[in-house]
Structures are given as structure tokens and as C-alpha cells.
Design brief:
alpha+beta, Ubiquitin-like (UB roll), 5-stranded mixed beta sheet, two-stranded antiparallel sheet, elongated, zinc, zinc ion binding, Ubiquitin-like_domsf
Amino acid sequence: MQDRRERTHMASPPQNEDGTYTGFIKVHLKLRRPVTVPAGIRPQSIYDAIKEVNLAATTDKRTSFYLPLDAIKQLHISSTTTVSEVIQGLLKKFMVVDNPQKFALFKRIHKDGQVFFQKLSIADCPLYLRLLAGPDNDVLSFVLKENETGEVEWDAFSIPELQNFLTILEKEEQDKIQQVQKKYDKFRQKLEEALRESQGKPG
């Protein structure tokens, strides 16, 4: 009887007529940097969620705040829903207006007492991976993190952010130029002093 219950618990959800499956996945949010959201917007209501009202589009004002570390969000998706669509869905639920390219979905795997993180491709299908691994979150779970590829995704930044980067770079450039000029001015001064002393000595 116990084995039958375990097999029932491990069974896949019913298959749809088109051959796909639908089900829930849980995503842990581990974001170390603040996210951008509309300023002065009321929390999304059930009516807004059902009608798919985009509250973020009702104002141009923006503010930033930190999402609770390791918050968990549950999404109802199909076995063909991609990582890209999952990320967009998560951002929409939290009314985050940052570019989705700033984020990446990872699968967290527990194996031999160790935890491994693997970045998923935007074309991967999380529910399909969930079905293959089984329902145990200790075996496989999903984590949303910042997309840190080692390469700067310039398309992910807004024009004001890029302009701010340019301002910072210009300031750093000017500071560096001044440091080099001071260094060589001091070196030139010492050379000129040494030259004058050498010329003032009797031959």
C-alpha cells in the first residue's frame, strides 16, 4: 500500500490533448542587487492578475528596492514554457521593469551531499526538467539570480543607465590623466633641478 501511494505521488500530471503537461514550479529568488519598480503603484489585485492588467505601464516614475532574500514564488506553467518566459513571468508578478536579460534562471542540484548550480538556457523548459527529476525539491530546484556571464550585456541597460556609466568613465579618465600629469610634472621638476645644479658647478 505504501509503495502504491509513493508511486501515485511521483506520477506525472495529466497529459493535455496536445501532448503537453501543465503544473507548478517553485522559484527561489536570490537577488543581491535592487530591482526597479514603478513608484507609487498599489499592489496587484486578483482582478488585475486575472485581467492581466499591466500596472507598470500606468506611470513613468521609477524606484528601486531589494526583494526579500530567498523569497519563493510559485508559477503555473506548461512543459513547453521556456526559461525566458518564466523570467518574464516572475518579473511581471513583482512588477519589476528591469530588462529580463539582467536575470538568469539556474537549476540547483543536490548530488552526493553537495549542491551544484547550473545556468539554464533561455530555451530550456523548467517544468519538463521538473518532471524528469521528480517532485522532490531536494533533488532539483530553481533559482533566479543576476545574469553574470563575465560579458557586459549592454542591451540590458536603459539609456539613463548608459549615460550614467559614461559620466563615471569620463570622471575616472580625468582623474587618471591628472594623476599621470602630476607624476611627470614632479619628475620633470627634479630633472630640471638636477640640470641646474650640474650647470652651476665649476667645470
